[in-house]
Amino acid sequence: MNKKYVVRLTEHEREQIEKLLRRDRAHARKLLYGRILLKADADGPDRWTDERIAEALEVSTSTVARQRQRFCEDGLEVALMPKKPGRPRRRVLDGRAEAHLIALSCSKAPQGRERWSMRLLADRMVEMGYVDELSHETVRRTLKKTASSPISNASG
Predict the structure, then answer these.
(1) What's the rounded Cα separation, in Å, for the pair 126 and 100?
(2) One short Pfam family name for this protein (predicted)?
(3) Closest listed residue to residue 29, CA positions, set 80, 87, 67, 85
(4) Are 64 and 53 in contact (CB under 8 A)?
(5) Per-residue pLDDT reduced to its tens digit, 115-142
(6) Measured between alpha carbons, how far is 83 from 67 in angstroms, rounded to an integer?
């Protein structure tokens, strides 16, 4: 099977990876990615298949393929660096909306209720037009990081 991304390390890149592996004082994933690239080098002495690399280094074949792709598209330095996990999250509540949420949670509960629920607070924030949509979980996380709740013993 022809691979779309073929790793061809230069002599300098190979020496750089081998030096990194000999030093053995780097992030574990950086060492793993270096080993993957050495084994995947088409011009190198090993020329292992993705399956054999995955089995030997105890990773999935998609990890090996992803590292080959990162090397071919972005170069050695990027391919050796571990990616940051997760996706960037946009803030639902800015500072002003958070302040309104805290003030609302400290206000008197609606008629027929003893206290505010997270869902009630979320619905009221949408009704008041501070946000287009808001989940009760976002309300919980926002209120958790403040000590301004009426039931809190801490005062800041």
Answers:
(1) 12
(2) HTH_32
(3) 80
(4) yes
(5) 999 999 999 999 999 999 999 999 999 9
(6) 11
